[in-house]
Amino acid sequence: MLDKEVCCVITAKQAECSFGHIQSGEEVRHLQATGRKSKMVAKKSPSALAVNLLVMDNKGYRRGSFQSSTSDEDMVEVAGGTLDFSMADDVPPLDREMAEGFSSYNGGGMNGASKMMDFLEEPLPGVGTYEDFNTIDWVREKSRDRDRHREITNKSKESTWALIHSVSDAFSGWLLMLLIGLFAGAIAGVIDISAHWMTDLKEGVCLQGFWYNHEHCCWTSQETTFQDRDKCPEWMTWAQLLTGDQAGEALAYILNYFMYVLWALLFSLLAVLLVRGFAPYACGSGIPEIKTILSGFIIRGYLGKWTLLIKTVTLVLAVSSGLSLGKEGPLVHVACCCGNILCHLFTKYRKNEAKRREVLSAAAAAGVSVAFGAPIGGVLFSLEEVSYYFPLKTLWRSFFAALVAAFTLRSINPFGNSRLVLFYVEFHTPWHLIELVPFILLGIFGGLWGAFFIRSNIAWCRRRKTTKLGKYPVTEVIAVTAITAILAFPNEYTRMSTSELISELFNDCGLLDSSQLCDYINDVNSTKGDDLPDRAAGPGVHTAMWLLALALIFKAVITIFTFGMKVPSGLFIPSMAVGAIVGRLLGVGMEQLSYYHHDWGIFHSWCSPGADCITPGLYAMVGAAACLGGVTRMTVSLVVIMFELTGGLEYIVPLMAAAMTSKWVADAIGREGIYDAHIRLNGYPFLEAKEEFSHKTLAMDAMRPRHSDPALTVLTQDSMTVEDVEAIVNETTFSGYPVVVSRESKRLVGFVLRRDLIISIENARKKQDGIVSSSVIYFTDHSPPLPPSSPSTLKLRSILDLSPFTVTDQTPMEIVVDIFRKLGLRQCLVTHNGKLLGIITKKDVLKHIAQMANQDPDSILFN
Q1: Which contiguous run of DSSP H or E holds residue 617?
Q2: 446, 663 contact by CB (below 8 A)
Q3: Distance CA 294, CA 289 (A)
């Protein structure tokens, strides 16, 4: 019997080590050593068989493989004969052409040579795209972009036109950021102006022009006094308009009450009907879904044109209805919609999902920039809270987009005060070290309230999902609006918009302030310059404290039921309002304590009689930051947003102390912020990068199939017909299939996506003559010669991912979880001694994490 040869094509660097385990009876000789590759022939005993092993050059060699680098684990143990490949068909010859085909990572075959597809020269439309509710392949998308960029760079040296194209391609990212900033700023300006006008419409109308809000209406009046600057003959309440001045005070109050509730119900009804009828994705805050989309999940239509239009309109209606919600979170969603739509103007962003997510990260920064007038805080918010992949290039572009958005909003000047927000503070009174104690107490309250709110809101939202309540979204919105409007009108602090309430609470009382919160007993002799000393509280302050205490209870409770309804609803402003009320109450308490007991030890050294020691507005500001931090678990971005929002640069340390304290306290009760809790409630496949996986489990514990499951569904590289493949596709719902040499050997060849497979077969049936159900599908470079009577073969090597990520069954799960987190994988194949065992998908990882945390693994399903 003739000896059979074992031929290996290997790189020169690997030649000296790849056959270190060949036994002494073998004779090795070098046949050729040219260029980068050498061929070695090893002669073995007659029982051995011909095995051709291909080892790619370093540039493309099994990229993404997390197996050991030893030859017996990476490929096949030649000497030991661990795997018995008894079929000659398992080892087709590999020529030089095929070896070179391996050398570049082709991202699922998109960059493979067109000769591999007989029926179409160009790449198929639709191949390489993703189904709805699927996860993108980050590695493939980044590889595509590198190949595209490499091609443009190479062509730029050939002609002037190609050079101009290269420059325009490089500049397109900045142009896109400019457009996003302009659109986000303009839309935010329209929303601010419209919401302000419609909020005032509930109380009355301007006779000069119905499009003026209350403040603008009285600006031009010649009969306005300073004390009653919010009253002017041009502005008429609904009672005055309907009855003239004939109605008594009681009737006027009832009429105004009735019209307030009626307008609130009308606005909320319009909002929920528009959301339900035209854009169901326009409801809620949008930030949990934005986080999930940025992590690689696809929700088609969530960032579309209809969603943008309906969200913009209904956000104005929802805010104007007086519901306990804000517009800041939804503005992030609106800005991301702008980013997604504008991406379609540029090919490199339209056709690449990973590049598009870089744009969406920058758009989120622009959204926070216009929501709070905080460009730097917006960039940090995008980095800290929503983004999954945030390279340095995206940081610069986010900063530019946030800058343009803030500049655009400033140009529109929606509030008429040359500020980007309604509540900008003007005081700069220094704070004292002893005040850190009440600031930390506010932080503790913020953490406790944040944890309580998250648990209560998630419990209510879960009840909405699992009971009949979820089937009646319109009824729920109308009921909550009616309760809110009826309870809010009698209290002036709940009747006004939440932004105006926060502005009132942040305000430091001056001599000219006429609100109840500033009704202090003035001592004219003690006033020095512009600084007012601490003064005794008058009856107006006492009344305001009671009203604020009632407003606190009302806001804290009603927000639990409002957030998550089928209207656009943000959480930033209601959370800040709760904290600002508590802060103002504590600030006034500290102020009165220092006024009446300035001789106490804690005040004696720094608070002399007649001095301005305590600033209640600062306490409101710190309380707002504490509650917002307790709910969202933001830290760095929160502090930056707050000092940009208020202009209080001197108060960074109190804000930092409160934000960190609230996060520590809230984390001690529950680790999840409100957005992460809603992601888990909705079953989005989001792999949290902040949490560590500390359990000692292996890849085989998380992979499928389990011991009791049916065998893993695989395709073979050269023995299945079109009919066989179509049957597998129709009988299963998997997103992709491993391709093996044969079912007996289970030697892995690559991985093919279900969508690519379906599109390729459909196109082949239409465009390639002779493709029938009995045609054999080949995932190899060359098919063996067939009899003339046999049907045409279908070659699908170009859609095959030749370098799927693989791990061994003994790989610790903490490494597997890190791979999924840091590389954004869709799936990972599991092998044992080179033999395919199973597959781990992103959902398998999430289910395993839930199981280890004693949670229901089936809850990790998109709902």
Answers
A1: helix 616-632
A2: no
A3: 8
